[in-house]
Amino acid sequence: MTAKVEERFFEYFIGPQHPGISGNFSVYLKAVGDTIIEAEARPGYLHRGFEKLMEVRRWLQNVPMVCRICVPDPDPNEVLYAMGAEELGGFEAPPRAKWIRTMVLEMSRIQAHLFYLGGISGALGLYTVGQWGVGDRDYILDRFEELTGARVYHIYTQPGGVRRDLPQGFKERLLETLDYLERRMPDYDKLIFDNAVFKKRTIGVAVLDKDWAIDHGVTGPNLRASGVKYDIRRDDPYLVYDQLDFNIPVYTDGDMYARALVRRDEILESIKIIRQVLKMMPEGPVMIKPPNPFTWRIPAGDVFVRVESSKGEFGYYMVSDGGIKPYRVHVRGPSMTHGIKVLEHMLKGARVADVSAIMFSLDVCPPDIDR
To answer: 297: closest CA among 263, 322, 328?
Structure first.
């Protein structure tokens, strides 16, 4: 008679304060030796109840709140809320405001991807890139501060347009920043993508199969890194993207290396887009006359709007009952899928040393889950 061997495993509690993901987020792991056999995402440590809070605030009072749904890339939420309110209300932002919104979205994409490159590199011990990424991101934040008065939560886009026009000399200063970032990319290539250690730790690791990704609702750069050429800016254009020339970076390997490459390429494409916007932007007003925020009513109806954020597809389903407040605002962000289902799927069978890098490779935004 053979004795029953007791199964032994290690328990790991990563988070909620951990650099492996951009925000307060927790993951529970079971591992046998160095191999993870069970993974459970445990969100709930951040801002909560955004959707419910929007039901008790007037239409314009929600503008300062929605940007907090994704701190590293806040502007898509501002644009979505404005687009939804405008479509429900039957009015449009002026043409110049649409061009400015496009510029702001691409600026936000650049700084979010720089943050990403620093994060995934830092998770693998390349701390120099973390310093570079945050430092170079600050140059974009300088331009945001000049344009909006704030560095992170801009509260700049609102129903009817944007709060103010471009400051004098802003165009020239932004172009200088773009030129600098473009010159910096070869340095990032040498330190990250040509780095033997980075390649060893990311190529063939945490592969996201194309068919599995489609079946489970993966979007954005994570989907394009698995070989699916889908981008809302091109496939369902909004604002002025249908008037711009840009490429959609796609890779087929679906691993951490491919996910980082997609974002690296998107930085250069966003630079290209912003230059076109600054060249083609028409003159004119940037805001229609706003109504009295205490009496403004939006006609009853519902609408779904979506944009391509740096994290993936963001969508807002908004309902009005004709009152002075939204009846319902439901946010469909990419992080619920990427940070729970996809992350748990990827961590099973992975090495403990790869956990932080795998988490950051998915570019999850925890407030989007806790909303």
So the answer is: 322
Question: In this structure, what token pair is assigned to residue 168?
Answer: 């004098």
Positive or negative: CA dihedral 208, 213, 217, 220: positive
Residue 237, φ and ψ in degrees, nearest 5 = -60, 150
Task: Please name which of 107, 156, 173 lies closest in space to residue 286, comparing C-alpha atoms.
Answer: 156
The fraction of the chain above a pLDDT of 70, given in percent, is 97
33-52 mean pLDDT: 88
- C-alpha distance from residue 172 to each of 135, 300, 364 (Å): 21, 43, 33
pLDDT, tens digit (0-9, with 9 covering 90-100), for 174-215: 999 999 999 999 999 999 999 999 999 999 999 999 999 999
Does residue 211 form part of some domain? Answer: yes
The domain in which residue 284 lies consists of 10-370
- Mean pLDDT, all residues of the chain: 93
Helix (H) or strand (E) holding 87: helix 75-89
298 neighbors 85 (Cβ within 8 angstroms): yes
Within a domain: 272 = yes
What's the pLDDT at 4?
Answer: 54
pLDDT in tens, 207-234: 999 999 999 999 999 999 999 999 999 9
Residue 43 is part of a domain; what is its CATH number? 1.10.645.10
Distance in angstroms (rounded) separating the CA atoms of residues 288 and 161: 7
Q: What is the pTM of this model?
A: 0.94
C-alpha to C-alpha distance for 90 and 109, rounded to whole angstroms: 29
Q: Where are the beta strands (DSSP E) in the chain?
A: 10-14, 26-32, 35-42, 157-158, 161-162, 301-309, 312-320, 328-332
Cβ atoms of residues 231 and 248 within 8 Å: yes
Residue 1 resides in a domain: no
User: By CB neighbour count within 10 A (0-12 exposed, 13-18 middle, 19+ buried), where does 352 fall?
Assistant: middle
Q: How many domains does the chain have?
A: 1
